C-alpha cells in the first residue's frame, strides 16, 4: 500500500521525503520493524519511541511518524503529526482497509460487567447462527479460535489487524470490551461502532484518570463513536448523565435499562437464588421470563443490557431469553469452584470496592454461617492508590465476617505496605481480619477455617491464572488451589 493511502483522513505535515512510496507493514516497537515499514514513534509512559528512530531505520523502516521535533535520516520520509497514538490508529485502519466498517461492532464499557455482557451476547448470536468475535479481558476469540492479547482492549495496530482477521474469517459481529485506557489512549479511534453499551461507573483506574469526572469523560467517548444505538444503565448516576448527552447528540438511538419503570427495558418480579436469578423483563415489544445462571443483582443488570440490545437488533424475546439461559457461567465470574452440603467457595473477579460489595451482598442471604473473604488490592503506589485501598478495606470489614488480606498483583510495589493500608481501614471499622502476604497461603488458611454453613469468597483475580510479582508472571490458578486443598482437608476429616 502507498504511504499516502495509509495517511488518508489524518492531519499531517511532510517534514522530508515522499509519500508515494510502498509500505508493507507498520510498527510502533522498533524491534518489530521490517523492510518497508512505517515506524510510528509514540511517547509512552516509561519509554519514548522517538529515542528508537535510528534503530527502526536500521531495521528497514522507510517512513517515520513523529510528534516531536527530532533529527532523522535525510533519506527517510518523515511525517509530523500532533498525536502519534491517534496517527497509529488512523494508519492501521487504512492499512487493513477499514475492517471495523465491515463488522457489526458492539462496544461495551463501564467499570464492572463488560465481560459477562460480552459472553451473553456471544451465546445469543451463536444460537442464531451468527459468527462472532470477542475482544476483552479474557482474551480474543475469532469464532472459537483464541488469540492472545496483552490488554483488555489491544493497541490500535493489533486491534485493526484482529478485526481484519475477523473480516477474512466471515465474522458477523465483533463484541468488544472497551476500556477507559483504550479510549483515552486512542486505541479504538477510527473504529466504527454500531452500538455502545454502558454498564456503570464506580471508582477505578484513578491513577490514570485522577478523578471520577475525568474517568467519566474517558468512558463517554465511546458514545460519540456509535452509529445506531446507545444502551445505557439508567440506575447509575453516570449513566443518567450519559443518557442526557446521548439524547442531545441524537445521531444514535438511546435505550435505557434498569430495575424500575423509568427505563425503556426493566426487570420486575426478581427472585434471587444461590446459583441463579429469575425475573420478568419488560420491553417495548412485550414481557418475558428471564433466567440468569450467574447469581446476584449485577448480573440482572448485565442481562438486561443484553435484552435491550437484543430487542434493538430485532431478535425475538424468546430467542433473547434462550440465549441468556444458555450461558451457564463465565470463568471467574461468581463461579462456585467447590460446594458440599456444609461449605461453598466462590471465585469472582471483583477488584473494585463496588464490585466487592455487590459480590458479598449477593452471597449474604444464602450464608447460614459466616461469610469469609480472601482479597488483595492492586492500586497505584502512594497517595494515588490510597483511596482504593481504604475503600476496599472498609467494604471487607463491613460486609464479611472474617477477611484474609493478601496480595493481588503487587507488581513492583511493596505488598506489605499495601496490606498495611488495607488493614488500617479494616481496623477503623472494627472488622475481623488475618493478614497473610502469600496469596496461596491465605487461600489455604481460609479454607482450613471453613465451618459448616460458611461461604468463602475469593475475589480479585477471577479467571486469571498468573500473579504478577515484580516484573515476573508466576503461574497461579486459584481453582486448582481450592480443589487440591479441599481434597486434603476432606481426607483428614
Topology:
Blueprint: H1 3-6, E1 13-16, E2 25-27, E3 37-40, H2 53-59, E4 61-66, E5 77-80, H3 84-95, E6 104-109, H4 114-127, E7 132-136, E8 139-142, E9 145-147, H5 156-168, E10 173-177, H6 180-184, E11 193-198, H7 206-209, H8 212-220, E12 226-233, H9 237-249, E13 253-258, E14 265-272, E15 277-283, E16 286-292, H10 297-313, H11 317-326, E17 335-339, E18 344-348, H12 353-363, E19 371-376, H13 383-399, E20 402-406, H14 415-428, E21 433-435, H15 439-449, E22 455-459, E23 466-469, E24 472-475, H16 478-492
Parallel strand pairs: 2-3, 3-4, 4-5, 6-10, 6-11, 7-10, 11-12, 12-13, 13-14, 18-22, 19-20, 19-22, 20-21
Antiparallel strand pairs: 1-5, 7-8, 8-9, 14-15, 15-16, 17-18, 23-24
Helix pairs in contact: 3-5, 4-10, 4-11, 10-11, 12-13, 13-14, 15-16
Task: Please report the distance between the alpha carbons of the first and last residues.
Answer: 69 Å
What is the architecture of the largest domain at the second tier of CATH? 3-Layer(aba) Sandwich
Portion in strands: 15-25%
General shape: globular
Q: Compute the average pLDDT.
A: 93
Give unreliable regions as ranges. none
CATH topology of the largest domain: UDP-N-acetylmuramoyl-L-alanine:D-glutamate ligase
**How many helices?**
16
Amino acid at each position: 500500500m502507498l504511504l499516502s493511502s495509509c495517511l488518508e483522513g489524518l492531519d499531517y505535515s511532510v517534514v522530508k521525503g515522499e509519500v508515494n512510496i510502498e509500505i508493507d507493514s507498520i510498527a510502533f516497537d522498533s524491534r518489530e520493524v521490517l523492510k518497508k515499514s512505517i515506524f510510528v514513534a509514540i511517547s509512552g509512559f516509561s519509554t519514548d519511541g522517538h529515542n528508537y528512530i535510528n534503530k527502526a531505520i536500521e531495521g528497514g523502516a522507510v517512513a517515520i511518524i513523529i510528534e516531536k521535533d527530532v533529527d532523522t535520516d535525510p533519506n527517510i520520509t518523515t511525517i509530523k503529526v500532533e498525536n502519534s497514538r491517534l496517527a497509529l490508529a488512523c494508519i492501521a485502519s487504512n492499512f487493513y482497509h477499514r475492517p471495523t466498517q465491515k463488522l457489526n461492532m458492539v462496544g461495551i464499557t463501564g467499570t464492572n460487567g463488560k465481560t459477562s455482557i460480552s459472553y451473553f451476547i456471544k451465546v445469543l448470536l451463536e444460537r442464531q447462527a451468527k459468527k462472532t468475535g470477542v475482544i476483552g479481558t479474557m482474551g480474543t476469540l475469532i469464532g472459537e479460535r483464541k488469540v492472545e492479547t496483552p490488554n483488555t482492549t489491544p493497541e490500535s495496530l493489533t486491534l485493526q489487524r484482529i478485526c481484519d482477521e475477523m473480516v477474512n474469517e466471515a465474522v458477523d459481529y465483533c463484541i468488544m470490551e472497551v476500556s477507559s485506557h483504550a479510549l483515552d489512549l486512542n486505541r479504538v479511534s477510527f473504529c466504527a461502532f454500531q452500538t455502545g453499551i454502558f454498564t456503570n461507573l464506580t471508582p477505578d483506574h484513578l491513577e490514570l484518570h485522577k478523578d471520577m469526572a475525568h474517568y467519566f469523560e474517558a468512558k463517554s467517548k465511546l458514545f460519540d463513536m456509535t452509529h445506531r444505538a446507545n444502551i445505557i444503565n439508567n440506575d447509575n448516576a453516570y449513566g443518567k448523565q450519559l443518557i442526557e448527552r446521548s439524547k442531545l447528540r441524537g445521531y444514535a438511538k438511546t435505550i435505557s435499562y434498569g430495575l424500575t419503570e423509568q427505563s425503556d427495558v426493566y426487570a420486575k418480579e426478581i427472585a434471587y437464588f444461590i446459583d441463579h436469578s429469575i425475573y420478568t423483563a419488560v420491553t417495548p415489544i412485550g414481557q418475558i421470563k428471564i433466567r440468569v445462571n450467574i447469581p446476584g443483582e449485577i448480573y440482572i443488570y448485565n442481562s438486561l443490557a443484553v435484552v435491550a440490545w437484543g430487542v434493538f437488533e430485532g431478535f425475538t424475546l424468546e430467542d433473547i431469553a434462550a440465549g441468556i439461559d444458555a450461558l451457564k457461567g463465565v470463568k471467574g465470574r461468581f463461579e462456585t469452584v467447590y460446594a458440599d452440603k456444609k461449605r461453598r467457595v466462590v471465585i469472582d473477579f471483583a477488584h473494585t470496592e463496588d464490585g466487592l460489595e455487590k459480590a458479598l451482598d449477593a452471597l449474604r442471604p444464602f450464608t447460614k454461617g459466616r461469610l469469609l473473604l480472601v482479597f488483595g488490592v492492586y492500586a497505584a503506589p502512594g497517595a494515588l492508590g490510597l483511596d482504593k485501598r481504604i475503600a476496599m478495606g472498609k467494604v471487607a470489614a463491613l460486609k464479611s465476617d472474617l477477611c484474609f488480606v493478601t496480595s493481588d498483583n503487587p507488581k513492583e510495589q511493596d505488598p506489605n505496605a499495601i496490606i498495611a493500608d488495607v488493614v488500617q481501614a479494616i481496623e477503623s471499622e472494627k472488622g475481623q481480619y488475618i493478614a497473610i502476604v502469600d496469596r496461596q497461603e491465605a487461600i489455604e488458611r481460609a479454607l482450613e477455617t471453613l465451618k459448616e454453613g460458611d461461604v468463602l469468597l475469593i475475589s480479585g483475580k477471577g479467571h486469571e491464572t498468573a500473579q504478577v510479582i515484580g516484573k515476573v508472571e508466576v503461574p497461579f490458578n486459584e481453582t486448582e488451589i481450592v480443589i487440591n486443598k479441599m481434597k486434603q482437608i476432606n481426607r483428614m476429616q
